[in-house]
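hi! just following up on the protien thing from before. the input was this:
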Amino acid sequence: MFGLTKDELHVLRRLDTPRKVQAFLDEIPINFEPEGDTCLSPRRVMRERRAHCIEGAMLAALAFRIHGQRPLLLDLVSSDRDTDHVVALFKQHGCWGAVSKTNHAVLRYREPVYKTIRELALSYFHEYFDPTGFKTLRTYSRPMDLSRFDRDNWVTSEEDNWFVVNHLFDTPHIPLLSRRQIATLNRAHPVEIKAGEITEWTPRTASSKARKG
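and the predicted 3d structure came back as:
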């Protein structure tokens, strides 16, 4: 299935709930990209034991697909002052949730309680700020179905999946707020900024965990 080995399928078939998918991603060290920018396929993420947000999102989307859901990504786009974020979408009980790979205390898993994609995207708004407390989330993409890249072997490719990134960038994005709203935004409180500095992995701990597998 999808070019995966029996062992790879065995791992993914065990991830039969969104909570299990998130827990699996949480055990994978963050990808600090020491050799330069990467966009690892799900196979490489499982083998190399490292992932950043879009790499984790692709693996999560694959796990959802194995269990009958569409492999959907959502792009959250910030202003030029910050970094974009990508999550994997899932639907449960008629509502949307998201699985997220991040190294920070925020921008994480979302319970399936959101009636629309816009509601889910907005749930990230207040915690999406730069080191000065300036709130930076601006737009969100329409859900992108990764099955469109099956012929490109996005699941098992040994090359970086830049075609996924490029297409996601070109997917229509929807504004979350107006210019007037942006002009009157309050900055995050210093306590929130301090909490936002908490990280889960360092390059040293990530490397050590990846080696242990």
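Residues 53-66 form the longest helix (14 residues).
The two ends are 24 Å apart (CA to CA).
cheers
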